[in-house]
Amino acid sequence: MSVAFDEYQRRKNEEFYKNREIEFKTFAADSRFARALAVDFHKRMKKEKVKVYEFGIGDGGLGVRFMLELRRLSENLAENTIYHFCDFSGKLVKNATKRADSFGFNVDGIVYDAVEKDPDFLVEPDYILMSEFYDDLPAKILVRDGKEVMELVMEEKGLRKFEGEDEIRRYMMGMPEGYHIPVNITAKKHLDFCISRIKGWIDVFDYGFRKKEITGMPAEMWNNSIIREFQGQITTDVNFDYLSKEETETQLEFVERVLGEKLHEVETDRLRYFNEEEIMEKGKELKKYGYEKDFHKDLKESRGYLHMRVG
Does any domain span residue 163? Predict the structure, then answer.
């Protein structure tokens, strides 16, 4: 029996996260990313009592690093910040809160499934952070075929006529023909609800695209690259144009802008941001990961990670 891609993605990811340790590489483990978030937060936040919510927490490392960096900038602000770890995995929430508790931070854990309901526990949040969260939520994969809209179904990986909302069909009429387009319906619903409750601002960091980038590669190549599988986990590139009309920048540009230094994306045992001096110092280590000398001088600077701010 054919299953729509979004339902297939939901089932596979529920199975993936069940009683599982987090093993994949993300920038959530990079100290500079956490520092940039904390520096930006410290500059913008004018309140004394602050409520922060993070969705899609992984192992809790990003939240802990963020709070450690914030404590270095202002012990008073860190002390008066309540950090809420929100995830559908009770195990991940428990581990993250325990880890943050060990540093003496004011933390709270909320077990919440974005597929099932709106985050109605949000009460005038000051800051909402989502790093590589929306790529994990179920998305429709749609294709425009003339004036018809088709939907990707799994198992036999075929297409069938899309029977969804007229608004989405109209949206797809503006897409190039033959390209598989992720339409992040669940993510947009979640973001719209967060916007309705926010008092401060929302940061969305994820790998994704804007419409102008789609035809930058042939359809076949594009269609083979937007779905990722890792040990059973299924993710898709995030369609930032569908999510919001807000402007985006690359995640690298955000980190560079906030920290005021030129950086390069490097993948070793994890994803990192290095400056040129560090690249030169760690030349032998980087060579083990396939990096040649002076690689950064000709390196394409972004891996497709984007940043969008709302508010």
Answer: no
Q: Judge whether 205 and 304 are in contact, CB under 8 Å.
A: no
Structure token pair of residue 79: 């002390």
Dihedral over Cα of 255, 256, 257, 258: its sign? positive
User: What b/e sequence results for 95-108 when a residue is b if at least 16 CB atoms lie within 10 Å of its CB, and e otherwise?
Assistant: bbbebbeeeebbbb
Please report where in the chains the tokens 């009309």 appear, as a residue: 245
**Domain total of the chain:** 1
Residue 283 predicted with pLDDT over 60: yes
List pLDDT tens digits, range 104-137: 999 999 999 999 999 999 999 999 999 999 999 9
**Global model pTM greater than 0.90:** yes
Domain membership flag for residue 12 = no
Strand ranges, E, within 63-155: 81-87, 106-111, 127-131, 140-145, 148-154
53: nearest Cα among 255, 205, 202, 188: 202
Phi-psi region of 19 (alpha: psi -120 to 50; beta: other; left: phi over 0): left
Rounded Cα distance between 134 and 306, Å, is 12
218 within some domain:
no
Q: Would you say residue 287 lies in a domain?
A: yes
In which domain, by residue range, is 253 found?
A: 24-136+185-210+229-310
CATH of the domain at 111: 3.40.50.150
The answer for residues whose C-beta is within 8 angstroms of residue 284's C-beta and 6 or more apart is none
